[in-house]
Amino acid sequence: MLYKIIFTKGHLDDLESLEKGVTGDILISNEEDVYFNPQYITIERVNYEFGIDKECYLEENLVLMHQITQETILKSIPHLHKWMFFEYWRPISDEILRKYFYPKEDWFIFKMEIE
């Protein structure tokens, strides 16, 4: 399977994401141009948001990490593939794609082949 991992705000590590421990500006597309929007979040951020007063912590398309960087995001893709994320996550619509992730000129795309 050929995936495109798209950093919609450019290719450099996003300092804001590193500081906040969460990012949602990454897209993964497959060979059929179906787009998924994983929500990368650090364990530290979950601990901060999931206080003792909460019953549960829920996030759609959640990927927990120790640190959110370009390198760790790219390393997560084979794990997501092995877990078959495409069977569990809802793809995003063209409308959402255009509304929140365009212009495509800002995108930095990595291609990754996974067997």
The secondary-structure element order is EHEEEEHEHHHE
Distance between the termini: 6 Å
Q: How many beta-strand elements? A: 7
* Tertiary shape: globular
- With strands numbered from the N-terminus, the spatial order across the biggest sheet is 4-3-1-7
How many H/I helical runs? 5
Structural class: alpha+beta
Q: For the CA atoms, what is the radius of gyration?
A: 14 Å
Major sheet attributes: 4 strands, antiparallel
> How many distinct domains?
1
**How much helicity do the residues have?**
25-40%
Strand content is 15-25%
Unreliable stretches (pLDDT < 50, length at least 5) are none
Average pLDDT number:
91
Topology diagram in text:
Layout (H helix, E strand, L loop, with lengths): L1 E6 L7 H6 L1 E2 L2 E4 L5 E2 L2 E4 H7 L12 E4 L4 H14 L1 H4 L5 H8 L6 E6 L2
Parallel strand pairs: 5-6
Antiparallel strand pairs: 1-3, 1-7, 2-5, 3-4
Write structural notes for this entry:
By secondary structure, this protein is α+β, with helices and mostly antiparallel strands. It has one domain. Helix content is 34%, strand content 24%. The protein is built from five helices and seven strands; from the N terminus they run βαββββαβαααβ. The strands form two sheets. The protein has a four-stranded antiparallel β-sheet, with helices on one face. The protein has a three-stranded mixed β-sheet with strand order 2-5-6. The radius of gyration is 14 Å and the shape is globular. The protein starts with a strand and ends with a strand. The model has no long low-confidence stretch (mean pLDDT 91).
